[in-house]
Amino acid sequence: MSFLGRRKFIKASSLGMSLLAFDRSAFASFLPTSQPVPSAPIVISTWDFGIPANQAAWKILSNGGRALDAVEAGARIPEADLNNHSVGRAGYPDRDGYVTLDACIMDEQGNCGAVAAMENIDHPISVARLVMEKTPHVLLVGAGATQFAIENGFKKTKLLTPESEKAWREWLKEAKYKPTINVENKLYRPDKLPGNKFNHDTIGMLALDAKGNMSGACTTSGMAFKLHGRVGDSPIIGAGLYIDNEVGGATSTGVGEEVIRNVGSFLVVELMRQGYTPEAACKAAVQRIINKKPDKVKDLQVGFLALNKKGEYGAYAIQQGFSFAVCTAQKQDLLVQSKSSF
Ligand code: SD4
């Protein structure tokens, strides 16, 4: 990450995992001018729920395990977290009260699997992996995805939790469907920005293992109160996630329609192939979205996270407050973007 780029991120936690906000300018003043290259293994994840997800992935990576196993194990943490209403089991439902989950996974050989709009199964990332490993297909959707999961030993589970149902019933009073931007890191609580609600976030994870192989995972319940049948970017290979073991990987969060329109994660990886640093590649992809929607950008959030083969990482989002968690043998950090990109 370049010095300029680093200035836009606040280091919010370090080795002790305490969430400690540093003053922006003070932080900038003691940062080195270039990021020391963390040697593999490394795992990075979107948002602050990436911290516990990284820890689960790290158990595998630090024992010489495969990046694919690490990202699956990591992604399962927020999927199972009943306090997390944007990923997995406790995800907010769609407009009609159905919780539908999207996920994809990609390995170092370019193999990939995905499920979209899948109901009643609580670990979509593991189903996505099975699609990759046990079928000749890449993407299963809806009832077919649920059927495939059950045939492979997954239990049918009621996903709608009482809290999610309550939030949905509250939403039904007005039933206005308007995606809102993500500005939810603890340092940037939405209460400081009237009108914001926590209604969508995805975990995207990228890991490089000790053998130098990269894999990625992406899992979400998508936009809260979306139209029934809506699928976002998260299960779409090239949009929500892309891995090229020769170059690196990228993943995205935010308004999925914009990411799909710009084939965002593939774009970030291709920019890295051309020599961009991970952060510069994320920034260029964000800029492309901004350039196409200059009038709408204030209400839009899209963020990208990238890791290259050297273990260098970076991120960039349209709005401030985007955060990502980094875990290596040397450190566990949460970096928070402190400025908007427009
Ligand atoms: C989607 N990209 O379904 C996901 C949601 C998300 O932060 O990441 N929100 O469009």
Automatic annotation (TrEMBL):
<feature type="active site" description="Nucleophile">
    <location>
        <position position="202"/>
    </location>
</feature>
<dbReference type="InterPro" id="IPR029055">
    <property type="entry name" value="Ntn_hydrolases_N"/>
</dbReference>
<feature type="signal peptide">
    <location>
        <begin position="1"/>
        <end position="28"/>
    </location>
</feature>
<dbReference type="GO" id="GO:0016811">
    <property type="term" value="F:hydrolase activity, acting on carbon-nitrogen (but not peptide) bonds, in linear amides"/>
</dbReference>
<feature type="binding site">
    <location>
        <begin position="230"/>
        <end position="233"/>
    </location>
    <ligand>
        <name>substrate</name>
    </ligand>
</feature>
<feature type="site" description="Cleavage; by autolysis">
    <location>
        <begin position="201"/>
        <end position="202"/>
    </location>
</feature>
<keyword id="KW-0732">Signal</keyword>
<dbReference type="InterPro" id="IPR000246">
    <property type="entry name" value="Peptidase_T2"/>
</dbReference>
<dbReference type="InterPro" id="IPR006311">
    <property type="entry name" value="TAT_signal"/>
</dbReference>
<feature type="binding site">
    <location>
        <begin position="253"/>
        <end position="256"/>
    </location>
    <ligand>
        <name>substrate</name>
    </ligand>
</feature>
<dbReference type="Pfam" id="PF01112">
    <property type="entry name" value="Asparaginase_2"/>
</dbReference>
<protein>
    <submittedName>
        <fullName>N(4)-(Beta-N-acetylglucosaminyl)-L-asparaginase</fullName>
    </submittedName>
</protein>
<dbReference type="GO" id="GO:0005737">
    <property type="term" value="C:cytoplasm"/>
</dbReference>
